[in-house]
């Protein structure tokens, strides 16, 4: 998934903001892997501008580990007792500009798809900016259209909710754990208070106020209690402005009319470093998430730090 050197240099340096097309898939891309007590954390990067990873490449990593967990669960009982269960895996990455659709959502018309795929100008933390052609992907999560892109941290845990390695999850308690981990990170790392809204998955700022704002989107799929997809935290991507730079202006996020989208940068101000490190922030989320895997009391969040 490596652009040619000429294209990569142009994307970063050309005053004309050369257009970066979706990268071709590649069997290899840079990544860092860290094993915590029980959770394996793999942060994906690439040789693309800003280290962005294609949605398809991240999904490939996810499905490979999901297949391992499903294969273990399919073993006969006697063999499964003698075969160690694969560890849960957390995949994290910054995504190349991608609009995703929910599994029950109607297919887009050609005009709607073309509208989303218009060139998008993105400011890169590594310096300069680039214009991308976003892609559109149909997913197996619930919900409606959302966006993944630079300035957003995507975290996809791939775990067996009924693993013998830790206390079982239900569907609701697992979603709540993703939300609680994000709330805890926002509070401890950035001093941002956030909450959840009944029947509206994700994490919100000022949820009970006059202008509720979504700071993290949640979308999960389960197959035989093995999870895929997860949560996307808006860190410093644009949430205001026109469609040339603000992807949210091109659609109604998750179909929620009258609700706004926000980011850590918009809420925390100078508590977010301009050159924030995606791998480091993902590592903090991973540490908090693992605490909840091992301690059921930390699968929810009431605003009190424990």
TrEMBL record:
Signal peptide coordinates: none
Domain BPL/LPL catalytic: 84-293
UniProt GO molecular function: lipoyl(octanoyl) transferase activity
Swiss-Prot/TrEMBL GO biological process terms: protein lipoylation
Name of the protein this chain belongs to: Lipoyltransferase
Source organism per UniProt: Purpureocillium lavendulum
